[in-house]
Amino acid sequence: MSSEPIRFDTKIAVLLREDLEPWQRLNVTAFLVSGLGTQVPDVVGEPYEDADGVLYLPMFRQPVMIFEGAKETLTAAHARVLSRALPRALFTSDLFATGNDRDNRAAVRAVGTGDLDLVGLAVYGPKNAVDKVVKGARMHP
Fold first, then answer.
1. Contact criterion met (CB below 8 Å) for 94 and 121
2. The sheet that has 10-17: what strands, in order across it?
3. What is the DSSP string of the chain?
4. Mean pLDDT score across all residues of the chain
């Protein structure tokens, strides 16, 4: 096994609106990254196994970078991710009021693209493209 660090030419980034409560940040992040794993199979690595042979689910093969920014930062990032046609997931403020998957999808479907009240956005793609999408955001503390 090589001891060389693995370098990735891709990036997974989550951008959160800075005014979210801590529980909302965690919840939104979990929902957002779940979408990437279903549509971009290359981001998921191999299953894990401990020394006793107990198997665990595979996870992303690379780190997830978490950013935060103002509402305007998310709006700009959303426009940039759409213009680049990168794989993306979104979370709107309306989703905090729903209680199931069907209502979540209906809440997003009810709002035009330019009027979405974004609180979170996840994106995957080449590093330079993802960096351009999250431009103006800062690393989450």
1. no
2. 88-92, 118-126, 10-17, 64-69, 138-139
3. ---SPP--SEEEEEEEETT--HHHHHHHHHHHHHHHHHH-GGGB-PPEE-TT--EE---BSS-EEEEEE-HHHHHHHHHHHHHHT--EEEEEGGGGG--SHHHHHHHHHTS-GGG--EEEEEEEEEHHHHHHHTTT-EE--
4. 93
Looking at residue 4, its pLDDT comes to 77
pTM: 0.90
Q: Token pair 């951008």 is at which residue? A: 15
Residue 1 pLDDT more than 60?
no
